[in-house]
Amino acid sequence: MTRSERQELLDKGLLLPLMEEFYTIQGEGFHKGTAAYFVRIGGCDVGCHWCDVKESWLPELHPATETIKIAENAAKYSKTIVVTGGEPLMWNMDPLTKELKERGLQVHIETSGAYKLTGTWDWICLSPKKNKLPTDEVYAQAHELKCIIYNKDDFRFAQEQAAKVNKDCILYLQPEWSKKDKVVPEIVDFVMANPQWKVSLQTHKYLNIP
């Protein structure tokens, strides 16, 4: 395959830069504690300085993998598939979700929402970032809003983002892991004063699992 042919397939979403895939327990948000198969797609230009998977940022570091093979493998492990990154919406997600849905799977995405919403999703976890804000479309369709708290200004940003999502969207505040000892008490106080919010913790890290 030539480089141009490979790029054409990537542009169509028929190949995706697959960083890793693994079966584990969902650690965050609404579905925490449930078994799920994670598909991590490489590529992200949002550039959060506290990102814990910076190795996902450069798509060329990860093998361009046939979308149908990703779906076939995922179907062996779980009925719930979580597509994450990186930023998966940098790529056309229509082919991947089509293959997963044809296999009767529940398909979730974790996204900053910074790119056009492609794919057919049963659950959209929107985790917006200040560097590159979400599209109007993803605000309207998000099932949960997960705002990461690193410093006090992030509470302001979270409230700003909550005003943009649909009325049924569930609101979560999650401490950035390296700052958890400092910000957890602040999050607790904020949620008690603003009970429309819930606390999300990275329980998989406490459980010492992927």
UniProtKB/TrEMBL annotation:
Binding locations of substrate? 25-27, 40, 84, 210
Q: Give the SUPFAM superfamilies listed for this entry.
A: Radical SAM enzymes
Q: Which residues bind S-adenosyl-L-methionine?
A: 50-52, 86, 127-129
Which top class of enzyme applies to this chain?
lyase
Q: Which cofactor does it need?
A: S-adenosyl-L-methionine; Mg(2+); [4Fe-4S] cluster
What catalytic activity does the UniProt entry give for this protein? Answer: 6-carboxy-5,6,7,8-tetrahydropterin + H(+) = 7-carboxy-7-carbaguanine + NH4(+)
Q: What does this protein's record comment on cofactor binding?
A: Binds 1 S-adenosyl-L-methionine per subunit.
The protein's matches in InterPro entries, at most eight in alphabetical order, are given as: 7-CO-7-deazaguanine_synth-like, Aldolase_TIM, rSAM, rSAM_sf
Q: Which Pfam families match?
A: Radical_SAM
| Record: residues binding [4Fe-4S] cluster | 44, 48, 51
As recorded in UniProt, its EC number(s) are 4.3.99.3
What keyword terms does UniProt attach to this protein? 4Fe-4S, Iron, Iron-sulfur, Lyase, Magnesium, Metal-binding, Queuosine biosynthesis, S-adenosyl-L-methionine
Q: In which pathway does it act?
A: Purine metabolism; 7-cyano-7-deazaguanine biosynthesis
Task: Domain (Radical SAM core): give its ranges.
Answer: 31-210
Q: Which PANTHER family match?
A: 7-CARBOXY-7-DEAZAGUANINE SYNTHASE
Q: How does it assemble?
A: Homodimer.
Family listed: Belongs to the radical SAM superfamily. 7-carboxy-7-deazaguanine synthase family.
Supply the HAMAP family for this chain: QueE (MF_00917)
Function text = Catalyzes the complex heterocyclic radical-mediated conversion of 6-carboxy-5,6,7,8-tetrahydropterin (CPH4) to 7-carboxy-7-deazaguanine (CDG), a step common to the biosynthetic pathways of all 7-deazapurine-containing compounds.
Question: What name does this protein carry?
Answer: 7-carboxy-7-deazaguanine synthase
Q: Which gene encodes it?
A: queE
